[in-house]
Predict the 3D structure of the following.
Amino acid sequence: MHILNLMPYPKTIRQAISFDKLWEKYGKFVKTYNFEYKLLGNEFSDLSDYYSPYANIKVGLTKHSRNNRICKLYHFFLDFN
């Protein structure tokens, strides 16, 4: 099942809530989510400034253990407003 189907946040960002605040809440939510593959270090890294310093794009990274390998999962938020 996809994380967005379980997440208590809107899939489409509304103007009533701050894009930055929603991203912050999402990062906290990801740390508590029970992933199928173990979240390593209970970490959610915000890479937004590195990948998109001038755009309303947020990029996050989590690392998971799957079949004795470390897998990177990238999270993207886009602000279409």
Summary: The chain has one domain: 3-78.
